[in-house]
Design goal:
The complex is a heterodimer of chains A (188) and B (248). By secondary structure, chain A is an all-alpha fold. Chain A contains six helices and no strands. Helices cover 70% and strands 0% of the residues of chain A. Classes of the chains: A mainly alpha (188), B alpha+beta (248).
Chain lengths: 188, 248
């Protein structure tokens, strides 16, 4: 393992850079990137856990909220409404703990993308609903003024998710405990 | 043995060792990933199961739900003395209500006739952008006012039997007059007020306010059996079947 092994940075990992100075500078940068990855994980993961838990206890309302988008047939919307809260909690936990981080990041990014499309779609069709992101749902007369902020929030979280996919777990990811042997063999 | 063969042998041994090590690592990784994915699946399944069991999945604020038969907007069937009371909040465009009604309305009416249940139908306009829903509820109010609850209940059943898709296309308002007449209302008495789709605006808005603001109903159908939210089964037809079973 090299100096920067703890950073778990693949894209910018310097393969065979002989100069000690160059290596140290890269590893400082890699260290910063890794800390940012941890921050991104905690932020997106925290939001997922919060959003999932808020809906978990009331799948009925969750299904209604999905249906209110009028995108999926109601049978499908019901299934999504029932499963989504648990999926959100699991993805959130995976990101916070750093387990299968890249995979969780991919799912996270896809979900945020879907939410952005969903909210844009109801906005464009003039349907005024609570996004149901953190529970709730149903009609909301003030929805139009909230849509831009909701889309911006999801876009920000989408960017953070993509960052995690690109960089991996960064600092304090459980992946290193689970799959650490892979890295050591790669680098030996 | 020459030095060269010895070296070759050693190299081959090392290569074999490395390959075995790699295989073992691959296996370990596979098991680790599989284990994590399995744990995730179990948590998701558990979450869905917990939700299905309905731990605290009450869709209404019970303190805000008016007692059965006590609202201006509810249409009741059966006798108040029946052992069970059912309140149904619904919307004329909501497809799940349509599926629930299609499966259950005849059997529930029969149970009410037999004195086994007292049912309070409370239709309201679930979504402000549902124009058809508003027109239908307006017509429902007109029929109730001019022809009474019995005809209105028939009209209610006909509305569900002829329910349009929630995404359209929607029938012309005149089709509501046809259904009202079919239910037993006099055309001359209902036509004008049904065609004027805002003639009963205060009824429509009042019923909606009562359901959404007072009772906190967020979706339809919201079914209350003896004061408790009822949603047994995996879909509206299932709820209707189970409700009928539980009331029989």
């Amino acid at each position: 393992m090299g100096i920067d092994a703890d950073a778990d940075v693949q894209p910018s990992a310097p393969a065979g850079q002989g100069m000690a100075v160059g290596r140290r500078r890269t590893s400082t940068k890699a260290g910063v990137l890794a800390w940012i990855a941890l921050l991104a994980r905690l932020l997106t993961g925290g939001v997922w856990v919060w959003a999932g838990l808020a809906k978990l206890t009331n799948p009925y309302a969750s299904a209604q909220a999905v249906r209110a988008y009028q995108i999926l047939p109601w049978q499908v919307a019901d299934v999504v409404g029932h499963v989504l809260p648990s999926v959100e909690v699991v993805i959130g936990l995976a990101l916070v703990l750093g387990v299968l981080t890249r995979g969780a990041g991919v799912v996270s990014a896809l979900l945020f993308g879907a939410f952005i499309i969903g909210i844009s779609s109801v906005w464009a069709r003039g349907i005024l609903i609570d996004c149901g992101c953190f529970g709730g749902g149903g009609t909301d007369p003030d929805a139009a003024s909230k849509y831009p902020w909701e889309i911006a929030r999801d876009a920000g979280l989408l960017v953070l998710s993509v960052y995690v996919v690109w960089l991996g777990g960064g600092r304090l990811a459980l992946d290193r405990l689970l799959f650490g042997h892979l890295r050591s063999s790669d680098e030996s | 043995m020459s030095k060269a063969t010895l070296r070759e042998e050693r190299a081959a041994k090392a290569a074999a060792q490395l390959a075995a090590q790699k295989r073992a690592e691959r296996k370990r990784t596979f098991i680790a990933i599989g284990g994590v994915v399995l744990a995730m699946a179990i948590i998701i399944g558990g979450g869905v199961w917990l939700g299905q069991r309905g731990g605290g999945s009450d869709p209404v604020d019970k303190s805000g739900v008016p007692a059965i038969g006590k609202t201006k907007y509810g249409l009741t069937i059966g006798k108040p003395s029946a052992p069970h009371k059912v309140i149904i909040y619904e919307d004329f465009l909501c497809p799940i209500c349509g599926a629930f009604e299609a499966e259950g309305h005849e059997k529930l009416a029969k149970l009410a006739d037999e004195g086994k249940v007292y049912i309070d139908y409370r239709p309201f306009q679930l979504r402000t952008d549902w124009t058809y829903s508003r027109q239908a509820l307006n017509a429902f109010a007109v029929v109730r006012k001019t022809a009474g609850d019995e005809v209105a209940k028939k009209f209610h059943d006909l509305l569900y039997a002829n329910q349009p898709n929630e995404a359209g296309p929607f029938p012309p308002v005149s089709s509501l007059v046809t259904l009202a007449v079919q239910a037993g209302a006099e055309k001359s008495k209902v036509e004008k007020d049904i065609l004027d789709t805002e003639s009963q605006a205060s009824y429509v808005d009042g019923a909606t306010k009562q359901a959404e603001d007072d009772a906190g109903v967020q979706g339809t159908p919201t079914i209350l059996l003896d004061g408790t939210a009822y949603q047994k089964g995996s879909g509206p037809a299932d709820w209707a079947d189970n409700l009928v079973k539980d009331l029989s």
